Amino acid sequence: MTPDTPTASSTPVVEVSNLVKRFRRESGAVVNAIDDVSFEVAAGDFVVLLGPSGCGKTTLLRAIAGLETPDQGAIRIGGRAVFSAADRVEVPPERRDISMIFQSYALWPHMTAFKNVAYPLQSRRGRKVAKDEIARRVRQALELVGVGELETQYPGQMSGGQQQRIALARALVNNDELVLFDEPLSNVDAKVREQLRFELVSMQRKLGFSALFVTHDQTEAMELAHRIAVLDSGRIAQFGTPRRSTTGRPPATSRSSSARSTRSSARSPRSRETAWSSTPRTGGSWGRAWAGGSPSVTGWPRCGVPSEESSVARSPAR
Ligand SMILES: Nc1ncnc2c1ncn2[C@@H]1O[C@H](COP(=O)(O)OP(=O)(O)OP(=O)(O)O)[C@@H](O)[C@H]1O
Ligand SMILES: [Mg+2]
């Protein structure tokens, strides 16, 4: 159960290898929620997992966070094995140095904004943070997401957009190298969503964390991603870089994505790296927006029955 020692700084922040997670339904039927998935997230990378309801996006994030135990495969974070079915390694969530942000804001209703954001700093095992340092970092995180004036408010006294900003501050306060986002913008209205996307891209650039972001919204994927992985029935069907030239919007990073793409495709033989165009997006079919991809892809991938939000524990403690 001894995790490996981290290696050089060029080590991917996340390496997922041949991951499998099956669920047994009450009926006895078995669902392959993650079906032999392999991919990497490089330092500073913004990878979006795109796919329709029930295709395994949340399960994959939860497995990386340590909230779900896969059946097969391995996960390395910063070069350290945090899960390996073969070697019987399973590092608990609080020792993975990952932050996760959920669709439902998952704030503690009885805590002020300040206390909600301070929670991860106070609850981490083995790393005591001094009280004044906590106060400094919480205020810095609240300012960063633009809600510094709300520190004494309770979640019930805030708008949805404000609550999601608090949740974002809580995810960023630890300065973790990796932040997992599970559809964090889908509960806020379109205008706020657009604003938060823009801010998220600049925050990621400024802070330099690596992001793995789940969405079923193709536009969102195009706006945020350095690379997009399309999930289809628990498998990565396609892997590509968004082509932003047609929107006039600059790439989210100045770093070369081709180097990352080459490395990723070399390690993930089943993934195909290609470029995405953000237009046209007729009828919401991502397949038609695929530039240079598979002609067989013409709509949403196959997927299982829609999963219920409640199937995923949304504890505010996370
Ligand atoms: N605890 C569980 N028990 C049984 N089946 C589960 C469980 N959690 C997820 N599943 C099933 O695994 C599949 C993948 O679910 P998951 O929540 O990962 O999908 P998703 O892509 O996140 O969907 P959504 O976009 O609706 O959130 C679904 O078919 C779902 O019903
Ligand atoms: Mg989900």
TrEMBL record:
Residues 14-258 form the ABC transporter domain. Residues 241-268, 281-294 have a biased composition (Low complexity). Residues 239-318 are annotated as: Disordered. It holds the Pfam family ABC_tran. InterPro entries: AAA+_ATPase, ABC_SmlMolc_Importer, ABC_transporter-like_ATP-bd, ABC_transporter-like_CS, P-loop_NTPase. It comes from the Bacteria. Keywords: ATP-binding, Nucleotide-binding, Transport. Transmembrane segments: none annotated. Residues 308-318 have a biased composition (Polar residues). PROSITE patterns: ABC_TRANSPORTER_1, ABC_TRANSPORTER_2. One of its GO terms (molecular function) is ATP binding. This is ABC transporter ATP-binding protein. It comes from Blastococcus brunescens.
